[in-house]
Design brief:
By secondary structure, this protein is an alpha+beta fold. It has helices spanning 3-13, 23-33, 91-94, 141-147, 173-192, 211-220, 241-246, 266-279, 296-299, 327-343, and strands at 39-42, 48-52, 58-64, 69-75, 81-86, 98-103, 106-112, 133-135, 153-156, 161-162, 167-170, 197-203, 224-232, 257-260, 284-287, 308-315, 323-326.
C-alpha cells in the first residue's frame, strides 16, 4: 500500500458515515475512484458505482460505506440526550466514550455518561443503549434543543492508530476497508488492462439490513459480484476455543477469506481460488452454510440470481471503536480481485453445470 492508497484509507476511516448518513464518506470514495474510472454514478440513496468499461463479462466488486453508531432519540428536562442504535452498536463499549453528534450546523461534542466506580454497586450489568445518555454540557432541555435535533446521528470520536508492523486500529473498519478494496481492485484491474467490465461499488445501509445492495443488485445486474466485508479474526485471547473452531481459525494477516456455501456461488469461488493460486496469494477459507451476513446475501437473490461471493477481510474486535486490520490483507484482497477479473475476462457465464 503506497502513500496515496494509505491516505485514501485514512480519509475513509476518519470521515463519519453512519447508516443513513453516508454522504460525506461517499464523497471521499467518489473523488478517489473518479481519477481512474470511466464514469461514476450515484443513486437516490447515495449508493456509488464506478465503472471501467471492457468487452468481457461484467464484474462488480462491492463494499458497504456505512458504519454503526447511535442516534439522538430525545432530550430530557436536564439537557441530557437519550440515544438509540444505528445498526448493531454494542452497549458494552459505548459507556464512557467521547462522541460527536453530527447536526446540520456542525459537530457537537459530548460523552456517553458512565457512573464512577465509587458510586456503583459491584459488577452491575451494563444498561442497554436506550437507557444510556449523552452529556453535551447543556443544563436544560431548552439548551440542548438549541444544539441538536432528534434524529441526529452520533459516532464515537475518531482515533486512528498505527500499531506494530502493518496493523492499524480504528473505528469503522467495518466496512470502509471493503470500499477501499473495491476501489483499489478496479484501479489495479485498469493497470493490468483487464478486458472485463469492472464495477466498483460502495453501498449504503448494509448495517440496517443490506438495503443498499438490494437497490444496486436490481439496478446493476452484473454477471458476478464479490461483496468485500470484514470477517472475525479468531486469533486473539478474547476468543474462546469453541468459537475459534467454529470459524475455522481465521487469522489476522493470513490473507483474504473466501467463504463457501449459501450465497457463495461455487463457480465464482473456484475462479477466485484459482486466481489466488496463479498469483501466489494466500487465502483462508470460511464456512457459510446458511448465510454470510453481508451484502452478498442481497446480491445473490437479485434479478433471479446473481453469482456472488463474500470475500472477507480479517478484523479483530468488530463493532467496537478499536477494530484492527492488517493492511497486507487489504492489499492482497485488491490484488486477488484484479487477478480474478483478468482470469475470467473471456468467460461468458458462471452458471453451475447441472
Amino acid at each position: 500500500m503506497d502513500e496515496r492508497q494509505r491516505a485514501f484509507l485514512d480519509d475513509l476511516l476518519t470521515t463519519p458515515s453512519p447508516s443513513g448518513f453516508e454522504t460525506a464518506g461517499q464523497r471521499v470514495w467518489v473523488d478517489y475512484v473518479s481519477e481512474f474510472a470511466d464514469e461514476v454514478q450515484t443513486d437516490e440513496y447515495g449508493n456509488a458505482v464506478a465503472v471501467l468499461h471492457g468487452d468481457g463479462p461484467e464484474l462488480a466488486f462491492a463494499g458497504h460505506a456505512d458504519e454503526i453508531g447511535l442516534m439522538v432519540a430525545g432530550v430530557n428536562e436536564d439537557g441530557f440526550l437519550r440515544v438509540g442504535r444505528i445498526g448493531g452498536s454494542d452497549h458494552t463499549v459505548t459507556k464512557g466514550q467521547h462522541v460527536e453528534v453530527h447536526t446540520d450546523d456542525g459537530v457537537v461534542p459530548g460523552v456517553v455518561g458512565q457512573a464512577a466506580i465509587h458510586l456503583r454497586e459491584g459488577d452491575e450489568d451494563v444498561e442497554d443503549v436506550d437507557e444510556q445518555h449523552v452529556d453535551v454540557g447543556a443544563e436544560s432541555e431548552a439548551e440542548a434543543d438549541e444544539l441538536v435535533d432528534v434524529g441526529d446521528p452520533v459516532t464515537v470520536r475518531q482515533t486512528l492508530s498505527d500499531l506494530h508492523g502493518s496493523r492499524v486500529a480504528a473505528r469503522g473498519m467495518d466496512n470502509r476497508v471493503g470500499t477501499w478494496t473495491a476501489a483499489e481492485a478496479m484501479r489495479r484491474a485498469a493497470e493490468r488492462g483487464v478486458d472485463a467490465t469492472v464495477y466498483a461499488v460502495s453501498t449504503v445501509q448494509e448495517e440496517v439490513g443490506l438495503k443498499g445492495a438490494t437497490m444496486v443488485g436490481f439496478d446493476l445486474d452484473p454477471d458476478a459480484v464479490v461483496a468485500v466485508d470484514v470477517t472475525h479474526a479468531m486469533d486473539s485471547p478474547d476468543v474462546t476455543g469453541e468459537e475459534r473452531f467454529k470459524d475455522l481459525n481465521v487469522d489476522l494477516g493470513g490473507g483474504p477469506v473466501v467463504a463457501r456455501g449459501s450465497a457463495n456461488h461455487p463457480e465464482v469461488v473456484a475462479a477466485v481460488r484459482d486466481a489466488a493460486d496463479d498469483a501466489g496469494i494466500d487465502v483462508q477459507l470460511q464456512a457459510a452454510g446458511i448465510s454470510t451476513g453481508t451484502d452478498a446475501d442481497a446480491f445473490y437473490t437479485a434479478r433471479g440470481g446473481i453469482p456472488s461471493l463474500n470475500l472477507g477481510l480479517p478484523n479483530r474486535y468488530m463493532h467496537t471503536p478499536a477494530e484492527i486490520v492488517d493492511t497486507e490483507d487489504l492489499d492482497a484482497a485488491a490484488d486477488l480481485l484484479a487477478a480474478f477479473a483478468e482470469r475470467v475476462e473471456d468467460r461468458d457465464e458462471f452458471a453451475v453445470d447441472v
